[in-house]
């Protein structure tokens, strides 16, 4: 009892001398809680303002606010086509720009018949650089353009290391993803400024918010678009021009068909039509938004981590798909991908190995000679960096499967780093 008394005494003494610290901590705690609550309230309000209220109060008159004609680049498929249709639904006349004349004719006819608006199209290949714009300038000369949607974009055929990309790919990415938006704005914006009204929508991507290894130049080009849009907004808002940066996460279009997960519409991955109908209702309301409420939390720390994790997952999946077809086309059937961890990276696709059954040595040679394979390098180094636990796991796994690939074989030419099996 005496001991307890002494303890209570001690505790009271300590509390008294620390009371000032306890109070300081209580103030910090209260400040943090209030801040978090206010953030939650503001976030909820802006989500409602952007995605719910416009649906309740009805559509704004886009023609009256911005003008009668809209130009949409990359508009024969995916988001561009769906966005053009949404604009047409609201009475806006549409000028489509893409590469394929047949597709342009078909989409143009379908929009004008369905929505009873005027349509026109310009055949242009943005990968050609400067030469593409003379025709566009000519075609748009006498048109009063109220809305410009810079949607055209190029993605990787499959995620890959920067140095594996061809020079053509580098220039295409710059010309299509970056230069096209610059040039289109340069052509159209003076007319908008003259009328003191207009809207420019630049379709960036959630990839603009994080570095995207293995999709390096795609993410970097989207970061360019995002900064370009945000700066333009400040330059031209006072002149009546609304510039919006759209930063969607995955939309199930043919662009992301290289992974079976992203090619299908699902709860988080809307179809292009679903996406466009949400995105258009944010026009004039938010200068930077994913345009879709389920993607709206992407600015938060948690979702940024999610993007990193998803990017790793997507990269691994898409690469595996291409590697599989490369191996299959080389008549190598008996192989498997062994996932493993490397503490130096978050990106799993860098750290997988392929085991090819020893009997298929001829197959390995075929693989080396195969025209679709860039290079095949035996990766003894890879074996050395394998963690002990992974080796044990992979050995046990082999025994269970009854394959019993001798363990020591992992270090020789039957093990290849995934990066070495890539389609041209
Ligand atoms: N899908 C996604 O998950 C996602 C996510 C975030 C952001 N984005 C961005 O959204 C935009 C549209 O993507 P999407 O998924 O709708 O793409 P998509 O389905 O592949 O459609 C691309 C469109 O661009 C046209 N196009 C392609 N290369 C062209 C070129 N060199 N010159 C002129 N037109 C060209 C294509 O038509 P032709 O082949 O007939 O020319 C097609 O109409 C892109 O900027 C993309 O980066 C997409």
From TrEMBL:
Limits of the Membrane-bound transcription factor site-1 protease-like N-terminal domain: 305-380
UniProt main location, coarse: mitochondrion
Cellular localisation: Mitochondrion
Ribonucleoprotein listed as a keyword: no
Entry-linked InterPro entries: 17-beta-HSD3-like, MBTP1_N, NAD(P)-bd_dom_sf, SDR_fam
GO cellular component: mitochondrion
Keywords associated with the record: Mitochondrion, NADP
Entry's family note: Belongs to the short-chain dehydrogenases/reductases (SDR) family. 17-beta-HSD 3 subfamily.
UniProt protein name: Membrane-bound transcription factor site-1 protease-like N-terminal domain-containing protein
Organism this protein belongs to: Bambusicola thoracicus
């Amino acid at each position: 009892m005496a001991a307890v008394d002494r303890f209570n005494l001690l505790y009271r003494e300590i509390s008294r001398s620390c009371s000032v610290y306890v109070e300081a901590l209580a103030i910090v705690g209260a400040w943090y809680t209030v801040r978090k609550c206010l953030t939650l309230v503001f976030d909820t309000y802006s989500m409602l303002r952007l995605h719910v209220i416009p649906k309740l109060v009805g559509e704004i008159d886009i023609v009256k606010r911005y003008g009668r004609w809209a130009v949409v680049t990359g508009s024969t498929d995916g988001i561009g086509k769906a966005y053009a249709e949404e604009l047409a639904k609201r009475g806006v006349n549409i000028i489509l720009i893409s590469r394929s004349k047949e597709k342009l004719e078909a989409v143009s006819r379908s929009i004008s018949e369905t929505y009873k608006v005027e349509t026109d199209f310009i055949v242009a290949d943005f990968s050609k650089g400067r030469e593409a714009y003379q025709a566009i300038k000519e075609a748009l000369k006498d048109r009063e353009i109220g809305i410009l949607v810079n949607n055209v974009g190029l993605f990787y055929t499959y995620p890959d290391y920067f140095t594996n990309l061809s020079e053509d790919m580098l220039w295409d990415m710059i010309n299509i993803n970056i230069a096209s938006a610059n040039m289109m704005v340069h052509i159209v914006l003076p007319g908008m400024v003259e009328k003191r009204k207009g809207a420019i929508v630049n379709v960036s991507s959630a990839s603009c918010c994080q570095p995207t290894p293995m999709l390096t130049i795609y993410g970097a080009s989207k970061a360019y678009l995002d900064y370009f849009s945000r700066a333009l907004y400040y330059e031209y808002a006072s002149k009546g021009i609304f510039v919006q940066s759209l930063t969607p996460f995955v939309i199930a279009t043919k662009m992301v068909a290289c992974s079976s997960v992203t090619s299908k519409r699902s709860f988080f991955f809307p179809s292009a039509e679903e996406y466009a109908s949400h995105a258009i209702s944010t026009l004039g309301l938010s200068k930077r938004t994913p345009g879709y409420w389920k993607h709206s939390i992407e600015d938060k720390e948690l979702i940024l981590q999610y993007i990193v994790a998803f990017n790793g997952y997507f990269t691994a999946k898409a690469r595996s798909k291409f590697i599989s077809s490369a191996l299959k086309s080389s008549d190598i059937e008996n192989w498997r991908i062994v996932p493993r961890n490397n503490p130096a990276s978050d990106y799993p696709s860098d750290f997988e190995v392929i085991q090819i059954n020893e009997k298929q040595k001829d197959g390995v040679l075929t693989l080396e000679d195969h025209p679709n394979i860039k290079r095949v390098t035996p990766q003894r180094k890879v074996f050395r960096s394998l963690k002990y636990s992974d080796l044990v796991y992979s050995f046990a796994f082999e025994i269970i499967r009854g394959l019993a690939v001798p363990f020591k074989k992992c270090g020789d030419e039957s093990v290849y780093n995934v990066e070495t099996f890539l389609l041209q």
